[in-house]
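Q: Structure tokens for this one, please.
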Amino acid sequence: MTKTDFQVIFWGVRGSIPVPGYDTLKYGGNTSCVQVQIRNRLFIFDAGSGIYSLGRELVKSGQKLSGDIFITHTHWDHIQGFPFFSPAFVKGNHFRLYGQSKIDTTFAELMAGQMTYQHFPVSLEQMGAEFDFRELDSGVHLELGDGISLNTIINNHPNGGLSYRLDYQGRSCCYVTDTEHYPEINEELCRFVHNSDLVIYDTHFTDDEYHRYVGWGHSTWQEGIKLVEAAGAKRLVLFHHANFRSDSEMEEIEKQAQARMSNCVAAREGMVIDL
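A: Here is the predicted structure, written as tokens:
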């Protein structure tokens, strides 16, 4: 298959905590990290433990790297891999990091917090690469150059968060994780993902489980299908798999979801989607 100029690569697909082991070999046990490659532009969504393997792959080129890293929120399963991201230790590399600030804390301070000496032996300032921290909020539209645009929307998640949409030459990818559905379809979110080519959606729970976890900030595969169908989006990727979910359980969920919507797949580490 010929590589396209708009490619989505999955490096971490779990939620809450990394769960490596025999029961998670097929779908993977690393926490959230998705690479989007648009021509020579590198975009990374979240820096969970999956970003470690992405970093190892990127440094193989031996070239100076530049990229944009979009953080949904700073819960540990979305930033815990960043201190081990190899390209961040290479002088001359340059990364723009985007995320939300909080009332009394900047986004840069939130990212640096897990790398204070009490938690990690290397501070963010000692890593080597150049970092440009940029704060975002819901409803932002950015032109990123090369005909690529980004939009954001607020997540229904404890302590907030953002979902992202990248558009390029009539194609689009939406990264919608760590957000909880409402009793009725969220019309604003529906407009956000409208007619998109790919929706990566938080399906941490199932409808049968959800009543035990109301308020946790996560959704279900059934609600993901409802959203995608209502929005006229083209393809759904089940994402942020529950840490307690085995490969056999994931297979059953994927089978049930595909019976309801054929153009649907459960995210796996190493999975590549060309748009």
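A few notes: The longest strand covers residues 6-12. The first helix runs from residue 51 to 58.
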